[in-house]
Specification:
The structure holds two protein chains of two kinds. Chain A is mainly alpha-helical. Chain A has a single domain, classed as Cytochrome C Oxidase, Chain A, CATH 1.20.210.10. Chain A has 18 helices and no strands. Chain A has helices at 6-9, 42-46, 51-79, 90-125, 134-156, 170-173, 178-205, 218-250, 263-297, 304-317, 333-361, 370-392, 395-401, 405-435, 441-467, 482-512, 559-563, 566-572. In chain A, α3 (51-79) runs antiparallel to α16, α5 packs antiparallel against α7 (178-205) and α12 (370-392) packs antiparallel against α14. Chain A is globular and about 65 Å long. The longest helix of chain B has 37 residues, at 138-174. By secondary structure, chain B is mainly α. The chains are: A mainly alpha, B mainly alpha. Chain A binds chain B through residues 128-130, 132-134, 193, 196-198, 200-202, 204-206, 231-236, 238-240, 243, 246, 250-254, 257-262, 265, 268-269, and chain B through 7-9, 14, 17-18, 21-22, 25-26, 28-30, 32-37, 39-40, 43-44, 47-48, 51, 125-127, 138-143, 145-146, 149.
């Protein structure tokens, strides 16, 4: 395994190899211990209120969740190698796809970028020492952990076979462990709400002096929009799942037509949360991309306000789109039309972002590194998934594709293709900052290419399958579908192997990687003004907020940038 | 008299602003938590107007109204407590918080009495009980299931609010909430007001509108 010499990559930049040129702030040890070495006992981690350590704890936990959800996915794909039974029975198959969805959505994707990277980066990007409520932040982590363990207990009790949507009336009578499963998700939901509340308050009250709203890094805008959705949508899920739990445990029949209930109302409530929830997943991904693109193109983001406003646009319009999940559930033609049009508005806001990113690359000085490779994968998968999203928001087409593999492929392209690649981009982009080490660029790029290839091979055949009429969640299928199913399964295993490769490359880098300088990517964003890894209170010196986070117009002063006092910086800009 | 802010805050004003904003954001979340049940109420009432009207007629307006008065007075006493603490009278503030908690307890006693009365009449959630053998209509079953759900969830919030107020009372008595930085009590009071406001909506929906919503 080779590591690339950082000085060869960034000629003219100070690297860790040359202490004479090293900015003073970037030398851990000289400027006090880093957050990683400031207390090394187990207790100093589990009782920490440092947002960076909490972010790392979230990250490690979500990686385990991803591994578990991924293992379920591979079992599902292996089952579909043959049209009939391959490795598991039908009941186990139902529980596998349910638990795959639950683990991936609530234990991995929702906290993946917001809770892990948001915690680590948000205060740094605001020039703050910590989030507004550090102890509540730690409590949120433990609530998430307890909820996740509860879901595992539910799995041990036999799992749940309703699908991650818990549609009534089946969820009220399923013989599987519905109650512990929904209770686990209910607990995780409170963690999501408290994290969102913490981030909103942090953004409002913890910005450093001189850091106005339109000078915040765009990742902060993304986290802000995400937090609004977390705070306003999650409680509706909590109450809906609580009702499902009560219906199952006590048989109160709140969605039972014989006792005055209405199962369609459950679908309304569930999707009122669960559609905005996909923006909890994709908005942070867009925030990551908005950081990665300017950094590796060394070019000011072509329209800061377009990205910021479209983030809020998606956050708000996202609350008016839930009905597009119910085109065949018996909603009126007018409602269906309104929901279809509102859903397409999301595509407009998303397209504004896509064009802004692409325009940022124009006339940029592009340095192709692993995070940018993930951006290309993101761009392809997101645009492809987004276009099919507009298609399924059209009622006449959706009637044909509803509950087929086409929809499965669509939301995997957007949610997994978009969120997973951006999550990987975030890992590779901020890896030097979080760990203070550099990874092998060559191996990491290979990992990125394999992830994209595996992903595409997994889900592209599913578009074809769905269009040909293969329904989702079916255990047996017509043998004519087998070739495409086999292709999809091969892709899934390539994707799994690629994720394993990425994991190995990064773990090796933690132990044997070269030491990273404070700003290995030559970024202008504020978090890079801190040493790598940062000290407990983030900055040895106040970052230069006189300069915007994407100001690549003037040449970067390099080490002098770190030496300058905030006053001196404010004077020059 | 100046009060020191926590290490990660610039000053105590920022810290107070954060605490207040945090509570309001949390209350927004709480309102949407209840909104799910309100959605059920309105959807089902529009589907079964007659059953809901009959159900409301079974509830005692007097008890619902007494409880409304109790909660409104308690909101007043907790607001007065904040006012007294700001004026530098922690003892008066502590007494008023104590009265607020007592009124919360009073509310719960009345509510429990109402529940027991329903159980005596054979009215249980989920359409169980002798009452529904005679009144076998989906609407009235759903009305009482929702009645127990929504007033029960509200009662849980009353209990949580009382717990918050007791904790604040202890802090006022110990002198860890001082007049110069009285905001923790004000933030706790805002939560108590929410408990009150939710009841203000439950009161007409479960007691006052037996003739329909129009």
């Amino acid at each position: 395994m080779t590591t690339i010499d950082a000085s060869a990559l960034f000629p003219g930049r100070a690297t860790g190899d040359d202490p004479a040129q090293e900015p003073a702030a970037a030398a851990p040890g000289q400027a006090g211990p880093s957050y990683l070495t400031d207390g090394t006992t187990v207790w100093s981690w589990i009782a920490t209120t440092d947002h960076k350590r909490i972010g790392v704890m979230y990250f490690v936990t979500t990686v385990f969740a991803l591994a578990m959800g991924g293992a379920f996915a591979l079992l599902l794909r292996a089952e579909h190698l043959t049209p009939t039974r391959t490795i598991v029975d039908a009941y186990t198959y139902n529980r596998l796809f349910t638990m795959h969805g639950i683990v991936m959505v609530w234990l991995f994707m929702i906290p993946s970028i917001p809770a892990a990277f948001g915690n680590f980066l948000l205060p740094m990007m605001l020039g703050a020492k910590d989030v507004a409520f550090p102890r509540l932040n730690l409590l949120s982590y433990y609530i998430y952990l307890v909820g996740s363990i509860w879901v595992l207990v539910a799995l041990w009790m036999g799992g749940c076979d309703t699908g991650w949507t818990f549609y009534t009336p089946y969820s009220a009578h399923s013989p599987s462990a519905v109650v512990p499963t929904v209770f686990g998700i209910f607990i995780v939901g409170w963690s999501t709400i408290l994290t969102g509340m913490n981030f909103i308050v942090t953004t409002h009250t913890m910005r450093a002096r001189g850091l106005g709203w339109f000078r915040m890094p765009l990742f902060v805008w993304a986290m802000y929009g995400t937090s609004i959705i977390q705070v306003l949508a999650t409680p509706v899920l909590a109450i809906s799942l609580a009702i499902v739990g009560v219906d199952h445990a006590l048989d109160w029949g709140l969605f039972d037509p014989a006792r005055g209930g209405d199962p369609v109302l459950y679908q309304h409530l569930f999707w009122f949360y669960s559609h905005p929830a996909v923006y909890i997943m994709i908005l942070p991904a867009m925030g990551v991309i908005s950081e990665v693109v300017p950094t590796f193109c060394h070019h000011n983001i072509s329209s800061y306000k377009a990205i910021a406003y479209s983030t809020l646009g998606i956050a708000f319009v996202g609350f008016g789109t839930w009905g597009h999940h119910m085109f065949v559930a018996g909603i009126s033609a007018f409602d269906a039309g309104a929901f279809g049009v509102l859903s397409m508005l999301v595509a407009i806001f998303s397209a504004i972002k896509v064009f802004t990113w692409v325009f940022t690359m124009r006339a940029g000085s592009i340095v192709l590194r692993t995070p940018l490779v993930y951006f290309f994968a993101f761009l392809f998968l997101f645009v492809f998934g987004g276009m099919t999203g507009v298609a399924v928001a059209t009622q006449s087409l959706d009637v044909h594709w509803h509950d087929t593999y086409f929809v499965v492929a669509h939301f995997h392209f957007i949610m997994v293709g978009g969120t997973l690649t951006a999550w990987l981009a975030a890992i590779h982009y901020w890896f030097p900052k979080v760990t203070g080490k550099m990874y092998s660029e060559r191996w990491a790029t290979l990992g990125a290419v394999l992830v994209f290839g595996g992903f595409f091979l997994t889900f592209f055949p599913q578009f074809l399958l769905g269009n040909a009429g293969m329904p989702r969640r079916y255990y047996d299928y017509d043998p004519v579908y087998q070739p495409l199913h086999v292709a999809s399964t091969i892709g899934a295993f390539i994707l799994g192997a690629a994720m394993l490769l990425v994991c190995i490359v990064l773990v090796v880098a933690i132990f044997t990687g070269e030491r990273a300088s404070a700003n290995p990517w030559d970024s202008r964003s504020y978090e890079w003004y801190a040493p790598s890894p940062p000290p407990k209170h983030n900055f040895d010196r106040e970052p230069a907020f006189g300069r915007g986070p994407y100001d690549y117009a003037e040449p970067f002063a390099g080490a002098a940038e770190f030496e300058a006092s905030p006053e001196a910086k404010a004077g020059t800009s | 008299m100046s009060v020191r802010a926590a290490a990660h805050f610039e000053d105590i004003e920022r810290q107070e602003q954060a605490a207040r904003l945090g509570m309001w954001v949390f209350l927004a979340s709480e309102i949407l938590f209840f909104a799910g049940l309100f959605a059920l109420y309105f959807a089902y009432r529009s589907e079964h107007p007659r059953g809901f009207d009959l159900g409301i007629a079974r509830n005692t307006i007097a008890w619902g109204s007494v409880n409304t008065a109790v909660l409104l007075v308690s909101s007043y006493t907790v607001a007065l407590a904040v006012h007294e603490l700001r004026r530098g009278k922690p003892v008066a503030a502590a007494w008023l918080v104590g009265v607020t908690v007592a009124l919360g307890l009073c509310f719960l006693c009345v509510k429990t009495g109402e529940y027991l009365e329903h159980f005596r009449e054979g009215i249980y959630p989920a359409g169980a009980g002798a009452f529904f053998a005679e009144n076998d209509e989906p609407g009235i079953k759903m009305f009482f299931t929702l009645y127990f759900c929504m007033t029960g969830l509200h009662a849980i919030h009353v209990i949580v609010g009382m717990g918050v107020l007791v904790a604040l009372l202890v802090r006022v008595l110990r002198g860890s909430i001082v007049p110069a930085a009285s905001y923790p009590l004000a933030v706790g009071a805002v939560y108590w007001h929410l408990v009150d406001v939710i009841w203000i909506f439950l009161w007409p929906l479960f007691y006052l509108t037996p003739g329909g919503l129009q």
